[in-house]
Design goal:
single chain; 246 residues; alpha/beta; 11-stranded mixed β-sheet; two-stranded antiparallel sheet; 4 helices; 34% strand; disordered C terminus
């Protein structure tokens, strides 16, 4: 920890594949440790927080390290029925006009999986299902909104980050739109949106951290113009900081 009275955040750029090494350079061995491990071990004593900029499935050297996914829009909300999925689908519909979009829905509730769905991965702590059929399920609505691929992750709260990282390295560097209340504890998205109904008291203030932008839902009219969200150089961008009703 640094000796000053300021908070220090360290950022490690670890998203470079090497054709000469035949691997991601962050995973290359340097003696008994990887280059990523060496960077983390050097920076951790002097930083309050470490962020790794990557869209690859890297082995995290420390539980205190949060990977940065600049190609992700993360949507959380102030509880149930505040419009998270509706808003996520509007973002997917907008981005999918020019890009292939991956949709991800993460829940701490486990549901039976029928033979119409493909189990992508399964452990005792989480199940990752690839959405294949049209229904009224949230993950299916993402597919119907225009996402090329959609994954439904059912995970214990303490393994949400692990479940996401299991799939992250297998996703192309296209836009990701993810609806999750807990993933923000494990990763840093390119854009973080917190949805709440108009005039509803905030019941989950711990989700309003960092760079969260509050989006108000007034009868499914959101005070955030999704057309301002763009994608360039493998990262989510905002075209300006002025939002209007959509």
């Amino acid at each position: 920890m640094n000796d000053l009275n300021t908070k220090v955040t360290g950022i490690i750029m670890a998203d470079g594949a090497s054709s000469r090494m035949g691997t991601n350079k962050a995973n290359a061995q340097l003696g008994s440790e990887t280059l990523l491990d060496r960077a983390v071990n050097l920076m951790e004593p002097v930083c309050d927080k470490l962020i790794i900029n990557t869209t690859n499935d890297l082995q995290m050297a420390s539980a205190n390290v949060s990977p940065l996914f600049q190609n992700m829009v993360l949507i959380s909300g102030n509880g149930r029925n505040v419009g998270k999925t509706t808003f996520a689908c509007r973002i997917i519909k907008h981005l999918s006009q020019k890009h292939e979009v991956t949709g991800i829905k993460i829940s701490s509730h486990f549901h039976p999986v029928d033979d119409k769905h493909e189990i992508f991965a399964q452990t005792s702590d989480y199940i990752i299902v690839k959405e294949l059929v049209e229904s009224r399920k949230d993950s299916s609505l993402m597919l119907q909104a225009g996402a090329k691929d959609v994954y439904f992750i059912m995970s214990k709260k303490e393994t949400t980050g692990e479940a996401f990282m299991h799939i992250a390295g297998k996703l192309a560097k296209h836009p990701i739109v993810c609806e999750s209340g807990g993933l923000g504890n494990s990763v840093h998205p390119g854009l973080y949106l917190f949805v709440n109904k108009a005039n509803r008291p905030v019941e989950k203030p711990w989700l309003l951290k960092g760079t969260a932008i509050v989006v108000t839902n007034q009868d499914f009219r959101f005070d955030f113009d999704v057309s301002q969200i763009g994608f360039r150089n493998n990262q989510i961008i905002l075209k300006n900081l002025f939002y209007g009703k959509v």
